[in-house]
Amino acid sequence: MSFGRAELAGSLGDLGTFLPLLVGMSATNGLSFATALFFAGVFNIVTAFSFGIPMAVQPMKAIAAIALSQGLSASEIVAAGMGVSAVVLLLGLSGLIDVVNRVFSRSVVRGLQLALGLSLAIKGVQSIASTGVWLAPDSFATGLLGAALVVLLFGSRRVPAALILFCAGLALAAFEHPDAVRALDFAPWLPSFDAPTWADVRSSFTRAALPQIPLTTLNSVVAVCALSSDLFPARAASPRKVAISVGVMNLAAGWFGAMPMCHGAGGLASQHRFGARGGGSIFMLGGLKIALAIVFGASLVSLCAAYPASILGVMLVFGGVELASVARDQRTPEEATVTLATAATCIGLSNDFLSGVALGTALDLGLRYARKRAS
Predict the structure, then answer these.
(1) Which of 8, 92, 113, 367 counts the most CB atoms within 10 A of its CB?
(2) Do 111 and 339 touch, CB atoms closer than 8 A?
(3) Is residue 38 left, alpha or beta, with left meaning phi > 0 and alpha meaning psi from -120 to 50?
(4) Do 174 and 307 touch, CB atoms closer than 8 A?
(5) How far is CA 234 from CA 56, 221, 274, 328, in A?
(6) How sure is the predictor about 157, in pLDDT bands with cuts at 50, 70 and 90?
(7) pTM of the predicted model, to two decimals?
(8) How far apart are CA 227 and CA 271, in angstroms?
């Protein structure tokens, strides 16, 4: 494992997705911030040794979105994650995930990755725009300066852009919200048993777990494995191993009330974009999360909530562009058509990835049949 500046900077590349969802569920739904941070760190370290690449550990996005919009309780959020993981673990242990991986053509997977990447980039722009002002510590100007910094340091391994951005964001948060800094409490903390009830499992499965299952299967397993093959051909992750990893994470941590976690193609792309190349980056990030959770506990949520939306937005934009750019290898008209149709459907139906993939697969099969008849 390498532990240089570039690896440290790369480990911060996924904060634009990780922090807003975690802070949102902690503040809105009562999810334990310290527990979520601690177990995300634990599985960052496990992932570093298991895969040897900067495989991200992210919140499950569909569950997070439903929880924030429908007001799920913390126990229901955890139960939904455990339900998804039970299904994904079964797919991994039985080998059925390999069948799923073979069913979807590369063009369809590229369309999914293009849609996810563009969605992240759009969310990043919206995050910057949400500041609503041109000149302020957290503003359009801050976002533009952050983007300019990333462009100027593009490809630099000596001066990592993400590390500078992250530190600047902390400084701005402390400057604008000194109360959040004063709220930090040096109180030792350790996780405790806090499992969801069977009633939580029943109430959350149809509302939150079912919508997450296809997204986890396609993005957190199929798409992330395809991306790992592109970025790290000699160390590509296997679908079965990733599925088992996702299943074990939540079925173990859920007993303590941890947030639902998965591996995402967007997170891998973001961390690679900002310099991460091996497991060392994720190991360092995991150690930092565990240390912060144990030392500061829940008092950290105030500082994270104060983190500038403009800086998080810049990270999301460039991470999204990195993920979307893998679609450039679709060179024939048929491949490009399937990829673009899949992405357009996903985005056009408000990130309905299941419908997008279904349409893209149907179009792909139709084009293959037409080509076969023509030949």
Answers:
(1) 113
(2) yes
(3) alpha
(4) no
(5) 18, 18, 20, 21
(6) low
(7) 0.73
(8) 12
